[in-house]
C-alpha cells in the first residue's frame, strides 16, 4: 500500500510541476499600451485570464508621459494626476474602467501630502466603494524628481 501511495504521490507531484511551468504561459499576457512611456526591462501590465474575468496587475506608475518626460516637477498634484491618467489608460486598454480597480498601493516621498493625492484620486475612483489600498512613505524612488509611484490591480468581467 505504501508503495502505491508513493507512486501516486510522485505522479501527482510531477503533474503539478508540469502545470506550474506551462499553466502561467497560457494564462498571462504582458502588455505595454500605446500612450505610455516605453518601459525598460519590465512591462506596464500583466493580464491574467481567470475564466469569466481577467485580472490586470499594473507595474508602479509614475508621472512620465508617453515621451518619457516628467510631468509636474516638484508638484505632487500634477504628478498624481499624470499617474492616475497612466493607470486609467492601462485599465481602459484592457477593456475596463476605473471602477474595476480593486487595489492601489501608494509609494509617497512625503506622507504629509496624502490629502492632495486623495483629492486627485477621488476624481478617478468610486469614492462610495473605494478600492483596498496601502500607503508606504519612502525616502526615495528611482529618480530624485519622482514624488509618487502607484501600483494598481483591477478585475474586469469578460463580456
From TrEMBL:
Gene3D superfamilies: RutC-like (3.30.1330.40). It comes from the Bacteria. Keywords: Signal. Transmembrane segments: none annotated. Residues 1-18 form the signal peptide. Belongs to the RutC family. This is RidA family protein. Pfam families: Ribonuc_L-PSP (PF01042). The keyword Lipid metabolism does not apply. The lineage of its organism: Bacteria, Pseudomonadati, Bacteroidota, Sphingobacteriia, Sphingobacteriales. The keyword Nuclease does not apply.
